[in-house]
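FAQ
Q: What does a multi-component entry look like?
A: The components come first, one per line:
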Amino acid sequence: MEYNVIFQPSGRRGKVEEGKSLLTASHELGVDIEAPCGAHKVCGKCKVKIETGFFEKFGIDSKIENLSPLTEEEKKILKAEELTENYRLACATLIQGDVLIFVPEESRKADQVVLDTGKERVFKLDPAVKNYYVEMTKATLDDHRDDLQRLQDALKAEFGLDNLSIDYFALRELPNVIREQDWKVTASVLYDREIIDVKPGFAQKWYGIGIDVGTTTVAAYLCDLKTGQMLIKDGMMNPQVRYGEDVLSRITYAMMNDDGRDKLHDSIIEGINTLASRMTEKVGLTPNDVVEITLVFNTAMHHCLLNLEPKFMGRAPFAPAISVPFDVKARDLGININKSANIHVLPVEAGFVGPDNVSVLIAEEPYKQDEEVRLLIDIGTNGEIDLGNSKKLLSTSCATGPALEGAQIKFGMRAAPGAIEKLRIDPETLECTYRVIGDEKWHGRGSKGNAKGICGSGIIDMVAEVFKAGIINKTGKMNAKLETDRIRRDENGKLEYVLIYAEDSGIDKDITVTQGDIRAVQLAKSALYVGAKMLMRHLGVDKIDRVTLAGAFGSFIDQESSMVIGMFPDCDLSKVHAVGNAAGDGAQAALLDQGKRIEARDVAASVEFIETAVEHDFQERFAEAMAFPHQVDAFPSIQHILDKIPGYK
Amino acid sequence: MEYNVIFQPSGRRGKVEEGKSLLTASHELGVDIEAPCGAHKVCGKCKVKIETGFFEKFGIDSKIENLSPLTEEEKKILKAEELTENYRLACATLIQGDVLIFVPEESRKADQVVLDTGKERVFKLDPAVKNYYVEMTKATLDDHRDDLQRLQDALKAEFGLDNLSIDYFALRELPNVIREQDWKVTASVLYDREIIDVKPGFAQKWYGIGIDVGTTTVAAYLCDLKTGQMLIKDGMMNPQVRYGEDVLSRITYAMMNDDGRDKLHDSIIEGINTLASRMTEKVGLTPNDVVEITLVFNTAMHHCLLNLEPKFMGRAPFAPAISVPFDVKARDLGININKSANIHVLPVEAGFVGPDNVSVLIAEEPYKQDEEVRLLIDIGTNGEIDLGNSKKLLSTSCATGPALEGAQIKFGMRAAPGAIEKLRIDPETLECTYRVIGDEKWHGRGSKGNAKGICGSGIIDMVAEVFKAGIINKTGKMNAKLETDRIRRDENGKLEYVLIYAEDSGIDKDITVTQGDIRAVQLAKSALYVGAKMLMRHLGVDKIDRVTLAGAFGSFIDQESSMVIGMFPDCDLSKVHAVGNAAGDGAQAALLDQGKRIEARDVAASVEFIETAVEHDFQERFAEAMAFPHQVDAFPSIQHILDKIPGYK
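Then the predicted structure of the entire assembly, as tokens:
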């Protein structure tokens, strides 16, 4: 006998054989219902509601009696009000007549995940580590199988997982774990190949961390691998900073000291361990619950973190030790999470263009875009720039320096509560107003904003605003002649502009912008600008259709400010977007969707690396780009703004 | 043009194209010449001698001029006298005419290895870890390949090795290693799959250790993986002895103490580390030169060494955590050899029949024997017994106790210098003579032999001899009435027989055999006898064609003594052989020939395990077997010896 079964809200319908469960029917009709316990009436996830009555549209009479009677397990799992509302477990309910079933939101299988760290991104939910619940047959004298074989057989029978190996440390506890809840266990399996963790009973909690290890800043994202949800993010200064501010000084440190490599390695590993324990503690977990970490970084940080000899990265021909993506046990790196956890290292592209740029690419996917010529700038101590589309993609890297991350700026700080993230200067009064991270309100003179310093997005605003207000000229030189108390000379006789007076600041000191700060930003923005222009020349284009600004900033960079200082060539302002930490988003994407690892491997192999710093006219072009916004190039998109600047011709 | 090329002493001949090297010619004609450097004129192993003159038999005129001129590399590598004797390097010498070549012994490729630890055994030389020498192309700005890729490409081009991975710790030093000797390296590759070590230049030294971890004794064999030669053997008491003398007491220790498992694990690992550093030091190596270890042990020791929960091994249904063979990194076990070294664990058979018995089987290969019914006894604290042939093979294990390894025997000791290994008692005078390990000479009363104690083979002789001399009767009871000063009562009034008086011993004490010693040996031999008889019943045979006695003894067990005490059922004495530590030999075989690992896996799966201790008549049969040689069963093969025993009817 066959009966009509209809699933709502999807509207999927068809004939299903008598005696099949609603769960089986849902599979046959292409409806995804969650059943993580493998239909063992344990997890209660496959809850559905039986709609009763005659449905004219479908010509069926849906009745409770058309289904098998309520089981003991359902009585235990379903709440009283759910029972009165005709909820059932799809796995426990057998079809004996026509029925119309409503599948509530929470029972529908999540097959995609929405990242909302900066820009909203949608990915497939398909983590490399998955949990599988199985019930094994108990060992007897007649059944000589060992514990592992028993687990492997169950995973094969229930999920078709074949040829599974087991990590040594997961094996050690196996005999105890499988007997703790009567031969029922949940196995965490990496790449459907290796059992890396086994927990007693039905355990659906397993977690991963995506980490973007910048030269200056480390950003980490703890994610639930079951739901794809990012639970918490955290960050810190890269502890390697004490051994050198930029990658070359760290490589030099490693070369000049016998234990240099170990110290660089140990310090960042210690940092990661701090982040892992701090983040898990905040959400009521332990580091042992973390079964995977994805890592992105530039190539030098890649070597320094992994303790690979970095010395040959610092000299031509800049060959890395390894560039393919690879997996290593957390314990081999000294990372204190689950003992059998996996660390996935994203691929290196070429030279100093590392996994962090690959990560930006898999987050932004310019290779899926057909016509538009897109410029992607990832701002960090090493800036990475990509240009192109699905036809051709070029990349380069440039020595931006840490200015845009707050280092080398007198009152610079990383994006953290207390940092100025937005800033405006009135061109008439030369008064400054600003907004601080953690506070929605704008502050100005006489309003205590408790600012402690200024972070990346604030720094870009600050330079753009002093330029727009005529406080600095086209060459970046401060104007001593303006009528305001805010421009003054410091103890060394150098000019500075007071952003916030001590009585309004959070540090009992005036917060100022110095001539040195302006110079540091000029060097940084010039490096980015020239990199972009050189890629345009190589691609043979003279116009950019779209600009995407990425970086680990507190808030999004202001697109107008960034173009006014000349950080990149002219582009329609409405096509300039800041997306937050795209490298961090890519690390999460690779954590939650193993398909992204394949994409990363492919794009790393196909993107063409251009060594722009060796171009014959690099120095000349660099000097031209030091001016605000540029000595030679025109910026039609912001000409109306430039025209209003006092003294700008 | 083609020329006649003849290789001696193999006599292989054929036409070879002009311009090909002698090495290439040898491959074409099926002659194996050593060329570990891959024909790079580096290693000097492919030395051959050019025979000159007209060879009537072959109709060729072999001349030096028929080959390309001597190269600079050959002048450097070949000695002056070799040059005058027309030696050349086969890889550097090109064919330009007819030649007759003699390949000296040392240039022929070793494809088999002869183990000579006890019995001479011949295996194929095919270790799981092999060394490959390659010369890479140097990194340039135009060639963006990373270091690993460069190495992988070279290994693929030269040796056809594809899809090679690299162990993380081998990767760390790769950039330095490949640049140290101008992009020439030797890679150690595990299973032709994973690069586990890379050394600068041409390095053909790599080593492995086969280890037999007995309940009481650990035996280790350091082997050269290049030549297959065993360089040194060493042994020690199993340091776990302090936590329990037998497997059940160790399992109990692990269960009753929170850190019990860790202590058991740590102590044996420390022992292995001691052995590895002691052995390598003695032959001028370091533990870092050791790239692989094979481990055999009984199943309980398997769990205790690997720190797998052993508790369920001690109770029905005796399920092990894992039984398949597996590989684990030395570093994960805490074994201090090469950081990336592999530990290969041989498979468990069933219950207490562990990898040590599998190891005996691959050493002795009874499964390759067609007709003869063979009994294999591996004597240890746990005795393992196999019976059968290629048609069917049964196995069982029995609780022998450590008596035959020297424990529980008043003056027992392990096989080491100073231990009595052979012993005779004159039935007329009741005087004892003996031989000590490390001394060829036989000693008796008045001859200082410096014996410190008595080891396994000596213990079996000792019991057989006191029985044959009538010092003990059929039931094992000592006879107080014999006329000799050697039989006396100890301080507790118990009878004992003095083997060696204090003035002749090496410990300033009389060395004696006590009534307790006799009882301990009776329990051990009875367990082995009953195990063998039960297997005979299961196999349906009443006669054994061949007996092989294995065990980690100082010298071979005397076949007559072992049958006189009734250690196994009657068998033609000429068909009883002692083979030394076959389990240790199997561990070496698996180290030197990876094909043996497949054989081990297959035999572990096919041998049928019989739980003899649960048979209904076990206790009764055990009691009968306590007598010398047996209470009921006849021993026609040694009846003539038994007939001469005073008081034996």
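Q: Is there any commentary attached?
A: Sometimes. For this entry: DSSP finds 17 helices and 32 strands in chain B.
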